[in-house]
């Protein structure tokens, strides 16, 4: 059996490889493993050059009980790809931090209707908890 630390180290290394498919899969697997040591690496990959990786990393961060990714996720609400903006809004909703309220209010005017809806739902969820 592979030790958890070695598994995390392997996936983190894959998150930094040259192939976007591998990086995307690594982000998804880090979410499944759920080890909190992955959070900083996933936050870093929110700036990945490939939008698939940014989206997968944003969604992966929703599985961790950490407020560390709030600001980087807020920044992703301005991403050029709607799927990334959508993933950021979902994760912000799950984390539920009030710092996301104003950015999510702006995202309600997004060009993409799905991003608008998810931002609206995220706002309701955050305000309900507050």
Tell me the number of helical segments per DSSP (H or I, 4 or more residues long): 8
What's the total count of β strands?
0
> How many structural domains are formed by the residues?
1
Q: Report mean pLDDT, rounded to a whole number.
A: 95
CATH architecture descriptor: Alpha Horseshoe
Shape: globular
CATH topology: Leucine-rich Repeat Variant
How far apart, in Å, are the first and last alpha carbons? 43 Å
Short account of what is shown:
With 130 residues, this protein is mainly alpha-helical. The protein has helices at residues 4-15, 20-33, 39-44, 51-61, 70-76, 82-95, 101-107, 113-129.
Task: Describe, in plain words, how this protein is organized in 3D.
There is one protein chain. This protein has 130 residues and is an all-alpha fold. The chain has a single domain (4-129), classed as Leucine-rich Repeat Variant. It has helices spanning 4-15, 20-33, 39-44, 51-61, 70-76, 82-95, 101-107, 113-129. Helix 2 (20-33) runs parallel beside helix 4, helix 6 runs parallel beside helix 8 (113-129) and helix 7 (101-107) runs antiparallel to helix 8. The radius of gyration is 15 Å and the shape is globular.
